[in-house]
Design a protein that fits this description.
Oligomer: heterodimer
Shape of chain B: elongated
Low-confidence stretches of chain B: none
Number of strands of chain A: 0
Distance between the termini of chain A: 9 Å
Strand order of the largest sheet of chain B: 1-2
Number of strands of chain B: 4
Largest sheet of chain A: none
Distance between the termini of chain B: 78 Å
Largest sheet of chain B: 2 strands, antiparallel
CATH topology of the largest domain in chain A: Cytochrome C Oxidase, Chain A
Order of helices and strands of chain B: HHEEHHHHHHEEHHH
Helix content of chain B: 40-55%
CATH class of the largest domain in chain A: Mainly Alpha
Structural class of chain B: mainly alpha
Mean pLDDT of chain A: 91
Number of domains of chain A: 2
Strand content of chain A: under 5%
CATH superfamily of the largest domain in chain A: Cytochrome c oxidase-like, subunit I domain
Number of helices of chain A: 14
Radius of gyration of chain B: 23 Å
Mean pLDDT of chain B: 90
Strand content of chain B: under 5%
Number of helices of chain B: 11
Shape of chain A: globular
Chain lengths: 383, 219
């Protein structure tokens, strides 16, 4: 936000304070899980008290960036407007996951307002703006080109994604009409994702004619756009229609889609951002030694594809044996064993990839020794 | 560009309004579809326990949750109350081999609340989910379905598939008669004092008869 508006954050002290309370809440929650301190809802396991601390952190964050934005509104861009919109939506939606609701169906009805409207709403907005920001920063392609479709993409994300929540309301005690509405709108959800992919490819192609300042950032960004399309678009579409979802709901196919979509849409985007930002902070040239970086890139992506495929095959076998043939759950699990083992081996390789990535990121983050940059002005961190 | 943007923004706002309208209608309809009037204090206590023990971490319910353990949406209607009570009290007693649920050492009142909760869950109108199997389960003898549903194959094998913890039942029909098998189902220790097989006396009489008929047919 600050970089886009070409200014400083409204209050760095507040930002540090927010970082610490969020970190404390996060670590407490994770350590708490080990001692079975849990709210007991998937993904939203944090006990209510920790959720309230997270809300406080979110409020501080929103206040800080809103003040940054309003005091510099003359330089407000589409990218920052989208980012702000996404973050407000993110914070508001979280509130629906906090209370204990006696009726399980209703609890899950609101729970999807967090899970789905985050993943296929707020986060998409935030991701769209971060992708735009990094493309402008990394490629040198003009802002006009990069931002051209941003609002259209955002509007389409919301147009399809909001009622698209209905693809989670097929089987949880919700009315029958969701089978129609959920199917139609969620089937259209890949449209903005395809636009984002086309956008990224166009900008990356244009950038080929320009001097590339940060190959790694661009590699992760391009891979993110492609896997976002595959995991969320293709894998998601594959089981979004109720005729199919009736058989696949709650099986390993969902796990395969989850792995693929998250890695593409959010995992790799976060890594791309680190590669975009770190050289600026440390003052290192982004296109230095890259063997380690590419080893990390390849091992993470290869192992992810193996995990996704193993889970997909396990899911297809599971649907066939359990749902179609009527075999018992645990008996089916024994037939899936080999695919879980493939998934485990790939998972181990992924862990190795994470290690390589961390090593590479810390290498990039380490400040350039003063001697090496003698004569060159030390860049001031912009972020 | 401006016109396109305006159209899309308007369409988004309209879809948000439609979504809110559908939410209001859904919540209204869900009261009947979930029999909300039957959510007693005991059902709520059961839900609190379900969340307290983080059951959703391994199990799915309404198809949502961890994929490590069976979906429990219909477990009340599939397993029945007696089975659930025994299982929740001591999972290993009913299901001695393979992937096991931990014993949470629940009090009787907690087991009761969970069973009442699962009964309420099993009556939610889920638009026909999970679907009825289409394949072999339909044509199979009733007894074989009970054999699988009660996890007998965890310990016993028939025709090469199943566990090895207990005797192979491939030719049990030529070794034992129906009365012997029924006695074994009702009280395994009637034939062998130190048998580790759990009793299935709690099964409905028709199920026990069906299971025995099936086993005695295996010559």
């Amino acid at each position: 936000m600050a970089d886009e508006l070409d200014t400083d954050i409204y209050s760095v002290r507040l930002a540090r304070f927010q970082l610490w309370i969020l970190l404390t809440a996060g670590v407490t929650a994770i350590v708490g899980y080990l001692f079975h301190w849990s709210f007991g809802m998937p993904f939203l396991e944090q006990p209510i008290i920790i959720k309230l601390v997270i809300v406080i952190a979110a409020l501080i964050f929103l206040y800080n960036i809103a003040m940054t934005m309003f005091t510099n509104h003359h330089t407000l861009t589409r990218t920052t407007a989208t980012l702000m919109g996404g973050m407000v939506m993110l914070s508001v939606m979280f509130l629906f996951g906090i209370p204990f609701v006696p009726n399980l169906s209703t609890q899950y009805y609101w729970w999807w307002w967090v899970i789905h409207l985050w993943v296929e709403g707020a986060w998409e907005l935030i991701a769209a703006s971060l992708v735009a920001w990094s493309l402008i920063k990394l490629t040198g392609v003009s802002r006009k080109t990069v931002e051209g479709w941003v609002f259209a993409e955002v509007a389409l994300v919301l147009l399809t994604g909001i009622i698209g929540t209905g693809h989670h309301y097929y089987w949880i005690g919700t009315p029958h009409y969701w089978l129609v509405w959920g199917a139609i709108f969620s089937a259209a959800e890949p449209i903005p994702i395809v636009m984002m992919l086309v956008d990224a490819v166009r900008d990356l192609l244009k950038a080929r004619t320009l001097p590339i300042v940060n190959t790694l950032g661009l590699a992760w960004l391009g891979a993110s756009a492609f896997v976002h399309f595959m995991g969320a678009g293709v894998w998601g579409f594959g089981q979004t229609l109720p005729q199919i979802n009736r058989w696949t709901h709650g099986t390993q196919i969902t796990a395969s889609h989850g792995h693929f979509a998250f890695w593409g849409a959010y995992g790799m985007l976060a890594i791309a951002l680190m590669y975009a930002i770190l050289p600026e902070i440390s003052g290192r040239k982004p296109n230095g030694k890259q063997a380690l970086s590419f080893a990390a890139f390849m091992s993470l992506n290869f192992s992810m594809i193996f995990m996704v495929m193993a889970l997909l095959i396990a899911g297809i076998v599971q649907v066939y044996l359990q749902r179609v043939m009527g075999m018992d759950f645990l008996e089916v699990q024994s037939h899936l064993r080999i695919w879980f083992e493939v998934r485990l081996v790939a998972g181990c390789l992924f862990t190795v990839g994470c290690g390589l990535l961390l090593w590479d990121l810390f290498r990039l983050a380490a400040r350039q020794p003063a001697a090496a940059v003698a004569g060159e002005p030390v860049p001031v961190p912009a972020i | 560009m401006h016109a396109t943007r305006l159209t899309l923004v308007t369409a988004t706002l309209i879809s948000a309004v439609i979504f809110l309208g559908m939410t209001i209608d859904s919540l209204r309809q869900m009261r009947t579809r979930t029999h909300a009037d039957q959510i007693s204090q005991e059902v709520i206590a059961g839900k609190r326990l379900w969340q307290h023990y983080d059951c959703n971490d391994c199990h799915t319910i309404l198809g949502i949750g961890g994929y490590y353990a069976p979906d429990v949406t219909k477990s009340y209607s599939i397993r029945g109350e007696a089975w659930l009570r025994q299982f929740l009290k001591d999972p290993a007693r009913i299901y001695p081999a393979g992937r096991q649920m931990p014993n949470f050492h629940l009090e009787d009142s907690q087991v009761g609340a969970l069973v009442v909760y699962l009964r309420w869950v099993s009556e939610i109108d889920t638009n026909g989910w999970p679907p009825d199997p289409q394949g072999m389960a339909r044509q199979e003898p009733v007894g074989h379905r009970i054999f699988l549903a009660q996890h007998c194959n965890t310990c016993h094998a028939i025709g090469g598939t199943g566990g090895t913890l207990a005797p192979d039942l491939t030719h049990i029909g030529s070794q034992k008669d129906k009365d012997w098998i029924l006695a074994q189902i009702n009280n395994p220790r009637s034939h062998k004092l130190d048998s580790i097989m759990p009793s299935f006396a709690q099964l409905p009489e028709t199920d026990k008869q069906g299971l025995a008929d099936y086993l005695v047919s295996l010559k």
